[in-house]
UniProtKB/TrEMBL annotation:
May play the central regulatory role in sporulation. It may be an element of the effector pathway responsible for the activation of sporulation genes in response to nutritional stress. Spo0A may act in concert with spo0H (a sigma factor) to control the expression of some genes that are critical to the sporulation process. Residues 123-220 form the OmpR/PhoB-type domain. PROSITE patterns: OMPR_PHOB, RESPONSE_REGULATORY. SUPFAM superfamilies: C-terminal effector domain of the bipartite response regulators, CheY-like. It comes from Anaeromicropila populeti. The modification 4-aspartylphosphate is found at D51. Gene3D superfamilies: 3.40.50.2300, 6.10.250.690, Winged helix-like DNA-binding domain superfamily/Winged helix DNA-binding domain. One of its GO terms (molecular function) is transcription cis-regulatory region binding. This is Stage 0 sporulation protein A homolog.
Length: 220
């Protein structure tokens, strides 16, 4: 199941898209006013569908505004078939086009194809707004710079990031990272977190939040 955002000024089209993709088990958020998209944390979606011809903000402009922090596939819904328009959308960061009118099978197939490709490309990569984890290389990259983490610090970051938004106590972090037979005490988690924060804050990145009396969480 994927979280999909569909943006179109025609409510009937949005409802149709939602019904079609819901049948494949996807969770579809529909928006008829493009100006509110930035408030919905578009970076949290697995795929975005954007109508090109919309009042106030057209799909190309919206794509350009969000592409700097949105890593998922962006597919344009368009009745425009001129070559210049197609090229412009791709240059602005779009991944593909679905021409209107489209059928159920085409929409489902195109969305599924992009989600499958995205899964393959990001199998060894965990991405956030201005940072990502190179899982195979065991590196955290912030603003295109490698964070100089120790092995333990990296493991803590990856554990929290894999469960972004979920709160863990020090004991749960310790067990999740080092296991029951780990060589360090869960009391050292606080020290690790302090060191991690220092390194990340020096790079202008503040993902680890303390929930007082409970534990820590990695904010998406």
């Amino acid at each position: 199941m994927a979280n999909i955002l569909a943006v179109d000024d025609e409510q009937a089209i949005l409802i149709m898209i939602q019904k079609i993709l819901n049948k494949d088990g996807h969770n579809v958020t529909i928006v008829s006013e493009p100006k509110v998209v930035s408030q919905l944390r578009p970076e949290s979606y697995d795929l975005i569908l954007l109508d090109v011809m919309m009042p106030e903000i057209d799909g190309f402009t919206l794509c350009k505004e969000i592409r700097s922090y949105v890593d998922c596939p962006i597919l344009f819904l368009t009745a425009k078939t001129e070559e210049n328009s197609l090229v412009l959308g791709l240059e602005l960061g779009g991944d593909d086009y679905i021409s209107k009118p489209f059928g159920n099978l085409e929409l489902r197939a195109r969305v599924s194809a992009h989600l499958r490709r995205e899964h393959r490309e990001h199998f060894a990569k965990l991405t956030f707004a201005n940072a990502y984890f190179n899982l195979s290389g065991k590196q955290l990259i912030v603003n295109e710079k490698v964070v100089p983490l120790t092995k333990g610090e990296y493991q803590i970051c990856e554990f929290l990031a894999h469960h972004a938004g979920q709160i863990f106590s020090r004991e749960q972090v310790y067990e999740g990272v080092f296991g029951y037979d780990g060589e360090s005490s869960d009391n050292t988690i606080s020290t690790h977190i302090k060191n991690i924060r220092s390194k990340l804050e020096n790079m202008g990145y503040f993902p680890i939040k303390t929930v007082w009396g409970v534990g820590y969480k990695w904010e998406k």
